[in-house]
Write a structure and sequence with these properties.
Length: about 325
């Protein structure tokens, strides 16, 4: 066709990327889900990385409480040897290692081994063990947004009220019936049959304070999770956090919200208040200042002192992702 632009014979430029540090990978592995699974994880990762000329060292956590100390040891060795601090496990394991990587000046790598793996899926990390390890051989560096509640990092979400209780019930179901999305859904159905009392709180955003009652407050940092349940504030991830607050409803209303989430329509519900903001402060009105509150942080239950300050972390997490993965929300490429 005449008048059209001629094809450019030059190949498209490759994505700009920094070289992987030469000091090896220092992996924290959670063995809590089974020693055989942990052994398989370490064997495959070692085989793949060493075949690519990378040294790797493993720090195996037998219990969840061991993760912070082991992550600190892994970070120390990564800093001494110009290496990468890495994690293999679910969102809780990734959180514990990323907490130290954020301020430790080292790149963070991950091999997802959890049930939902929202953080890994958001950033294009393969869910298959060997594929995830192989992706590290030809990775690029991006800097991704993370959230903070008080001094705790969260990669996916943080919440109080109903959601931490649901997580506790889900863990009990997992102990009896195993880990799967179906088990998680069934545990949620069982939990919602209870009578959940609303929680009076004061929410402060940009100096504006509002008192309300809510059964749950949820702060999200993961666009994929928010998109799956149908919350439009997913588009704000990258410069803000998404906040969802649940107005008091009965058991039938809670079941309805669960179904709306399953069909990606949660944001349409009249009983859900949602907005985006880079920071907010939450003060429960039934507890004194300094009282410790139960908060779910990336699927793990922690106790934090009131008031709770949620914010976008001032620095971004340096994350290794597959070379040709699309840049997700909240990521800045190097």
């Amino acid at each position: 066709m005449s008048g059209g632009a001629s094809a450019d014979p030059r190949p498209a430029p490759e994505p700009t990327r920094q070289a992987i540090p030469s000091g090896g990978f220092y992996f924290v592995v959670n063995a809590g889900s089974g020693s055989q699974r942990s052994k398989e994880t370490q064997t495959v990762i070692r085989e793949v990385l060493e075949s690519g000329g990378h040294r790797c060292r493993f720090f195996e956590a037998r219990r969840g409480g061991d993760l912070p100390a082991l992550a600190a040891r892994a970070l120390d060795e990564a800093q001494q040897n110009d290496g990468v601090i890495a994690a293999a496990g679910g969102d809780g394991t990734l959180n514990a290692v990323a907490q130290l990587a954020l301020g430790g000046g080292r790149p963070f790598a991950m091999v997802p081994r959890g049930t939902f793996n929202y953080f890994g899926r958001t950033h294009g990390i393969p869910q298959d063990l060997r594929a995830a390890a192989e992706a590290l051989l030809d990775a690029r560096l991006v800097h991704v947004q993370v959230g903070m509640v008080n001094d705790r990092v969260f990669l996916v979400n943080a919440s109080l009220g109903l959601y931490p209780r649901l997580l506790e019930d889900r863990e009990a179901f997992k102990q009896r019936f195993g880990r799967s999305r179906f088990v998680a859904f069934c545990s949620a159905l069982a939990s919602l049959r209870r009578h959940w009392q609303p929680m009076p709180i004061e929410v402060e955003v940009d100096g504006d304070r509002q008192v309300l009652a809510t059964q749950s407050l949820f702060v999200g940092n993961n666009a994929l999770q928010l998109q799956q349940v149908g919350v439009e504030e997913a588009d704000a991830i990258g410069h803000a956090l998404a906040v969802l607050m649940l107005r008091p409803v009965g058991t039938a209303g809670l079941f309805g919200l669960l179904l709306r989430g399953a069909f990606s329509r949660l944001g349409d519900a009249d009983s859900v208040i949602s907005f985006s903001t880079p920071a907010l402060t939450v003060r429960p009105l039934t507890t004194g200042r300094g009282r410790r509150l139960k908060v779910a942080v990336d699927g793990e239950i922690v106790h934090l002192s009131a008031p709770l300050v949620f914010r976008v972390a001032p620095q971004r997490l340096a994350l290794l992702v597959p070379r040709y993965s699309a840049s997700p929300a909240g990521a800045a490429c190097d």
